[in-house]
Automatic annotation (TrEMBL):
It comes from Natronosporangium hydrolyticum. InterPro entries: AKR2_Oxidoreductase, NAD(P)_OxRdtase_dom_sf, NADP_OxRdtase_dom. This is Aldo/keto reductase. Residues 45-235 form the NADP-dependent oxidoreductase domain. PANTHER family: D-THREO-ALDOSE 1-DEHYDROGENASE, NADP-DEPENDENT OXIDOREDUCTASE DOMAIN-CONTAINING PROTEIN. SUPFAM superfamilies: NAD(P)-linked oxidoreductase (SSF51430). It holds the Pfam family Aldo_ket_red. The lineage of its organism: Bacteria, Bacillati, Actinomycetota, Actinomycetes, Micromonosporales.
Amino acid sequence: MTIIDRLAGASRIGLGLAAVGRPGYINLGRAADLPAERTVEALRARAWQLLDQAYAAGIRYFDVARSYGRAEEFLAHWLLARPEIDDVVVGSKWGYTYTAGWRVEAEVHEVKDHSVASFDRQYGETRALLGDRLDLYQVHSVTPDSPALRDGDLHRRLAGLAEQGVLVGLSTSGPSQAEVIRSALSVEVGGRPVFRSVQATWNLLEPSAGPALADAHAAGCFVIVKEALANGRLAVWEGVGDAVALAAALQRPWASIVLSGAVTGDQLNSNLRAEKLTVDAARWAGLAMPAAWYWQERSQLPWM
């Protein structure tokens, strides 16, 4: 049974734990949304609250990563505490190492490494936490210069992972997302495609990956939209708001899942309204900016 089959009938909104798995992140307004004391215990409690609420609302896809602080740990322990839950799909990512040491202010928050050695180490760490609950494993934030697009040894490792029943994919970031996605679609081992899932940024400000995501969907890939709210910028954009921005992404015919990065219960409830909205995307076409501008602005968002 494919991931798409397993998610049939569930919400097409997924819950990402990037913003509650570590004390510092770049979403606007986050500083006021989380407890002043961002201890491990406080963020674990918030993550579990959101996971319980999301599951009760019909969300069945949960997104974590090695670099999201303790997000994998929070999700793994939540699943262990609720053995009756056996119908969720778990996606994680490898390729960045969290280096902030549980600090909001750190010189470097994460370090990128797409080598075979990094995969071997981080896959072992992920399996130690999530065990057989891992359904999807993605290379984190692939850009055109990443060895993940060219390293034959890594491709064979990933193909072996797929033979064990784990869906293999990649996430993208930066102004060249479309180039990366199309390059990834051509990567094969033994005549079979390696990457069967793509997670990319698409939103009303940065829609440039749309045509390539349509190609990925047409090729049979599971397509996940991240940052549909542009790290919170669209949540406060006059006339837009979170539900409209998420609805615009949900209405893309190639989108399998659109991620919510909510950090409060009220935000999650508001995000879920998107499933009942119909949005005229043409109305918002004027918001799109050149991809290079968008990613330059994003790179300057403060960790808070």
